[in-house]
Amino acid sequence: MNAYILNSRAGRHFKSMICKHLNIKSTEIYKTVKDVKIDNTIILHDGRKFKPMLKEVEYEKDNNTRF
Question: How far is CA 37 from CA 4, 30, 31, 42, in A?
Answer without folding.
Answer: 22, 15, 17, 7
